[in-house]
Amino acid sequence: MKKTAILSFLFFAALAFAQGIKFEEGSNFKTILAKAKKENKLVFIDAYAVWCGPCKLMVKNIFPLKPVGDYYNANFVNAKIDMEKGEGIDLAKKYNVKVFPTYLFINGDGEEVHRTIGYVEEKDFIQFAMDAGDPNKRLTALKQKFEKGEKDSEFLLNLAGLTVYNDTEFSNKVLERYFAAKPAITQDNLQLLLQAMKSTDGAPYKIFTERKADILKIIPEKNVESIDKNVKVNTVMSKAYNTTTKKLDEAYFLAETQKFMTKDEAENLLKRVKASRALKDKDFATYEKITIELNKDTSALSADQLNSLAWNFFENVTTKSSLETAVKWAQESVNKNENYANTDTLANLYNKIGDKKNAKIWAQKSVDLGKAAGEDTADTEKLLKSL
């Protein structure tokens, strides 16, 4: 009887799994395109990264749903591709994937016809797919409609949202036309404006300064000032850093940032920029040295900031004394706000410095907290079993 029940459970579990999106397995992108062309279908790509939380939630909550699977399996050749590994790296460059998850709809010739991003609920996720299948609703068609002069505010806001992350120049033009009609500032259009505002040179920043009085009715003045300063810093950084030589013009950076902050603030910021660049360039020794120097006093940092510091050291630093400093950061993070993430960081750091006893204690606590919060605790459970 027990064996029958187990087999029955496995059957229904397999059936439930089969109801969702069926992704191509073991095929390269060229083969997937060829299949789509042969079947006269579009390719749907879940462009993801392994660390991406919303990506995991889509896999857990949306992809397995029967209505989603029914529509996507009937109309697309579906593929899941890690944009940070293998051929995904080149595909991310080709299709300008900058945020995760990004959902791409590609024709058999490899041309993008539609896209969207982020965690999407069932109804909207199916609607996006239906739009991709309708030549009149695809992103390519929407862009053509814009170029013909469309001024409908809802249309413009939707189009700006679809292009803000992957086509900055076009998105800025859309927002410029949208805000030219002087719409009321709302949470939605303000959020989109801020997402687009990457430099003081573009239309979004001009709109931001012109509508500042209206923006202050929605967000506090100190937040507006902070946003303004961040955009100015990003602008200076883009001009001070040479992406070809990977060299930072420190003199220019200091001179320009001191136009809107104090000398001490500018010098401190320069150190943070150098630490960030060192980490990105995998110059871990420089990153380690500057980061420890900058964080002698961490009392003002939040639990999340402390956890981020500690985790970066776990991943990139091997000096035991520095790892012990990271343990203190993780402990401080836990003391400020104990959660699955920072207890997991603390467990991993203890394990890395050879303290198996404390690693086991904190790994178990992390698993308990993670399960209570509905987190994916697989990696922490793997660590726990190894201890």
Give the end-to-end Cα distance, rounded to a whole number of Å.
38 Å
| Radius of gyration using CA atoms only | 24 Å
Quaternary status = single chain
Given the C-alpha coordinates, what overall shape results?
globular
Order of helices and strands: HHEHHEHEEHHHHHHHHEEHHHHHHHH
Strand content: 5-15%
Number of strands: 6
> Number of helix segments?
21
The parts where pLDDT drops under 50 for at least 5 residues are: 1-17
> Residue-averaged pLDDT, rounded?
92
Physical arrangement of strands within the biggest beta sheet: 2-1-3-4
Key phrases:
two-stranded antiparallel sheet, 6 strands, alpha+beta, 387 residues, single chain, disordered N terminus
What is the fold's blueprint, element by element?
Blueprint: H1 2-18, H2 29-38, E1 42-48, H3 53-62, H4 66-75, E2 76-82, H5 88-94, E3 102-106, E4 112-117, H6 122-133, H7 139-147, H8 153-163, H9 168-180, H10 187-196, H11 203-210, H12 212-215, H13 221-240, E5 241-242, E6 247-248, H14 250-257, H15 263-280, H16 284-294, H17 303-316, H18 320-336, H19 340-352, H20 356-373, H21 378-386
Parallel strand pairs: 1-2
Antiparallel strand pairs: 1-3, 3-4, 5-6
Quick overview:
The chain is an alpha+beta fold. It is 64% helix and 7% strand.
Describe this structure in words.
The chain has 387 residues and is of the alpha+beta class. Helices cover 64% and strands 7% of the residues. It has 21 helices and 6 strands. The chain has helices spanning 2-18, 29-38, 53-62, 66-75, 88-94, 122-133, 139-147, 153-163, 168-180, 187-196, 203-210, 212-215, 221-240, 250-257, 263-280, 284-294, 303-316, 320-336, 340-352, 356-373, 378-386, and strands at residues 42-48, 76-82, 102-106, 112-117, 241-242, 247-248. β5 and β6 (247-248) form a beta hairpin.
